[in-house]
Write a structure and sequence with these properties.
The chain is an alpha+beta fold and 781 residues long. It has 19 helices and 31 strands. The strands form six sheets. A six-stranded antiparallel β-sheet has the order 13-12-11-16-15-14, sandwiched between helices. A five-stranded antiparallel β-sheet has the order 2-1-5-4-3. β4 and β5 form a beta hairpin.
Length: 781
């Protein structure tokens, strides 16, 4: 229709009193059909009450042939003598397809969607972009109420609320939304500015808005937010599987509808990384997740391996060390999807909508660990270059966390293997004590500590019980523990009293700390605690000393349990401070409980209460010592111990008078024969005649040496245990030693013969001199 301007006049009652030729051309109604009718009969919608001032707005007019025509109406009041409106003069015209002014063309051709609404949320103007977003031409929308032009949705209600809010408050507003539009096939991010349009008097007569598509900026912010979230949510534990599960949980469904993480097998073991093959790649599925319950898209089950052909996205990503994107329709995509469907046909229908795949290598510190695969199904967009950059950044962060977990697992495994190799595997059989033990490595992220225990057979059927703890965790602490464990065994072989042994051990730790400090030019922090106890089954006496270590608990045969009262010295490594030993006599059948501080100490526990629980647990009925170990751990150990725990239980035994024979020997060489005869008679009484020949030679040699080189008093003692022990004590502190006798020497061969004929021999210092001993193995009884 040609561009025309129509004019009409209506009275105060809304009746048409004048009608122009332009009005006829515009609406099809002749003057005789329009004049005298109510103006509302010619409108599609009811006209609001006309104000006593000029106004302009779009109005939907009903054409004579039934069509609806949007026209822009300008109304001016016709005033009477009292200056009150007696009618209105109206002009109407169809919107021009080309704007007559530069400002109008700028509005119409703006690169963002721009619209103007009246105070009642009716369209007054739309530019080309706004019409494109709405999917209809301007004349379809002009004069219509906004809610009538959109579907009922949350974002539509929000848009309408903001329009009303601007009219009510008269203040501009800016907001962001994630919403769709009638002409768009997916939701977009929109940044919208709304501001009031005012009359010169300040009255709000409309709302103008400008909205631009900020989807790219929104998605960029979303990617940055995911990366920031990854820093806090990935790598919360030093567990490889858990870390990969955190990656999957972060990406589904925001980045992909299905995500899988596959690792090279060596990552889950202790092997060194091999080169990535150029052809087929074997990967193990560690984690996957899906927007669908049960992850039906997965062609590989968790824990299974999968062989990826060279053309597949995972193999290409590993080979090219970059993100690989394939889209529906590409040859590699078709081949990959067909291979997945052939492997797991039951998930075919869930893969039918797959349209984009991205595979990203997991690279950390120059090493390839595996690959992350993302699949989009319901997500409408294909993976683009920005997605690849984001995925590579996220995969890099995830790979570092996975590599940290791998390194921790490897170090933990190494430390645990080293520690177990140093701990006693099978405790030697002896008559002094019955032992049971438990060692529980910590499950915390701190790693394996330096706890250790040992049971060391000593001369004279005695036994040493040791428990200790090195400060810190990891391989370094385990290695230090190994040094101390070896040192204690060496010092125990010298048969030092507990307080003297700890003094020597303290010097060793001080020297080790000095060596470490000189190696890295820093003051080394190296410390340890240790408790060393010696039990003699003949005298039933227990001597013990502690260096910064908790006192052991004692369970008596009558059922009473208590901590042994002792003075605990400083931790090893402090240096210069003495250690004090305590000695007590124990009844046969008493249980001594030695442990490390991980059993009783924790951040949320009171130590006194924990030791009380330990003593109470020791009194619980138990069929065996092993069962008592389990009872103690169950009753005392926290649910999640933060440190290693070592527990050693020793039930005392006693060697009665029927298994020990003692003789005082006069310092006269003539008494050697009588002493030898007495020993032979004792062996006959014990039924050990087969050992008489060697015993006579040992007794003769040791007693002769004590008379010749030692000092009174001289004493011979035979002990029948799992071995036959011959001990000769004298008042001299000079220890004997083996020497090579020359061909014409008359002596010097006695100790050599003793060493050759017995299982082992040695000497130990005592309060009154020394004791030389020799052991012969006996046939088990």
């Amino acid at each position: 229709m040609e561009h025309v301007v129509a004019a009409a006049v209506i009275d105060a009652h809304g009746i048409v009193t004048g009608w122009s030729e332009g009005a006829r051309l515009l609406t099809g109604h002749a003057a005789e059909e329009a004049v005298g009718r109510a103006a509302a009969d010619l409108l599609v919608e009811e006209l609001p009450p006309l104000p006593a001032r000029a106004w302009i707005r779009p109005v939907l007019v009903r054409h004579r042939d039934g069509r609806h025509i949007t026209v822009t109406v300008t109304a001016c009041p016709v005033l009477g003598a009292d200056e009150e409106p007696v009618g209105w003069a109206l002009t109407a015209e169809r919107p021009s397809e080309s704007e007559p002014t530069l400002a109008g063309r700028a509005f119409q051709q703006a690169s963002m969607a721009m619209s103007v609404f009246d105070p009642h949320q009716r369209y007054l103007r739309l530019n080309e972009v706004a019409c494109k977003v709405m999917g209809v031409s301007e004349d379809v929308l002009l004069g219509r109420h906004f809610p009538d032009t959109v579907q009922e949705a949350e974002h539509s209600r929000g848009f309408d609320w903001h329009l009303r809010h601007v009219v009510e408050t008269g203040r501009p507003i800016r907001y962001e939304s994630w919403a769709g539009a009638p002409s768009l096939n997916r939701e977009h991010a929109w940044t919208t500015e709304m501001w009031p349009v005012r009359e010169p008097s300040g009255e709000v007569v409309g709302v103008a808005l400008a909205a631009f598509d900020s989807t790219e900026q929104y998605l960029a912010r979303q990617r940055l937010a995911v990366l920031n979230e990854a820093a806090a949510s990935i790598g919360t534990t030093l567990d490889i599987v858990r870390t990969t599960e955190e990656v999957v949980g972060l990406l589904v469904p925001r980045f992909a509808d299905f995500v899988s993480v596959d690792l090279l097998d060596w990552v889950l073991g202790a092997d060194e990384p091999p080169p990535v093959p150029d052809g087929e790649v074997v990967l193990r599925r560690v984690a996957h997740g899906s927007a669908h319950e049960g992850t039906p898209e997965a062609a590989v089950r968790l824990g299974e391996t999968d062989v990826h052909p060279p053309f597949s996205p995972p193999a290409r990503a590993l080979r090219e060390r970059r993100a690989v994107r394939i889209q529906a329709g590409e040859p590699d995509f078709v081949s990959w999807l067909a291979e997945r469907n052939a492997r797991a046909p039951e998930g075919r229908r869930f893969r039918s909508g797959v349209h984009s795949v991205i595979a990203v290598p997991l690279l950390a510190r120059g090493t390839t660990l595996g690959v992350l695969v993302g699949v989009r199904i319901a997500h409408p967009d294909d993976y683009e270059a920005d997605d690849a950059v984001f995925a590579e950044e996220l995969a890099s962060r995830a790979a570092v966390c996975i590599d940290n977990a791998r390194r921790f697992a490897r170090e933990r495994t190494t430390a645990l293997a080293l520690q177990h190799s140093l701990l006693p595997r099978g405790l030697p059989g002896q008559a002094a004590v019955e032992v049971a033990h438990r060692y529980l490595p910590s499950g915390s992220t701190a790693g394996i500590g330096g706890d250790w225990f040992d049971v060391i057979p000593l001369s004279g059927s005695r036994v040493a019980l040791v428990v200790g703890d090195v400060v810190g965790h990891g391989i370094a602490s385990t290695a230090t523990m190994g040094r101390l464990c070896t040192a204690v065994r060496t010092l125990a072989d010298v048969d030092l009293p507990p307080d003297e042994l700890l003094t020597h051990l303290d010097d060793l730790v001080t020297h080790l700390a000095g060596y470490q400090a000189s190696g890295d030019d820093e003051v080394a922090e190296l410390g340890a605690t240790c408790l060393y106890a010696v039990y003699d089954p003949v005298s039933r006496r227990l001597a013990l000393a502690a260096a910064g270590h908790p006192a052991p608990a004692l369970l008596l045969p009558d059922g009473r349990a208590e901590l042994i009262r002792m003075t605990t010295g400083p931790p090893l490594g402090v240096g210069g401070l003495p250690f004090e030993a305590v000695e007590l006599e124990l009844p046969e059948g008493a249980v001594v409980a030695l442990y490390t501080d991980g059993l009783i100490e924790d951040r949320d526990r009171d130590v006194d209460r924990a030791t009380g629980e330990l003593c109470s647990a020791l009194t619980a009925p138990a069929a065996t010592l092993d069962a008592l170990c389990d009872t103690v751990l169950k009753a005392v150990l926290p649910e999640e111990p933060g440190d290693d725990v070592a527990l050693l239980l020793a039930r005392t035994r006693a060697l009665g008078a029927d298994r020990v024979a003692t003789w005082d020997v006069e310092p006269d060489p003539a008494r050697v024969a009588a002493t030898r005869q007495a020993a032979t008679e004792q062996l006959t009484a014990w039924g050990l005649e087969e050992a008489a020949f060697v015993t006579e030679l040992v007794v003769s040699e040791l007693v002769t040496n004590a008379i010749r080189y030692g000092a009174p008093p001289i004493r011979l003692r035979l002990i029948r245990d799992r071995s036959l022990i011959c001990e000769v004590s004298d008042g001299s502190s000079t220890s004997p030693h083996l020497r090579r006798a020359h061909a014409f020497d008359e002596g010097g061969r006695g100790l050599l013969l003793v060493a050759q004929l017995t299982q082992r021999w040695g000497s130990r210092q005592t309060d009154r001199g020394k004791t030389i001993w020799a052991e012969q193995s006996l046939v088990p009884e």
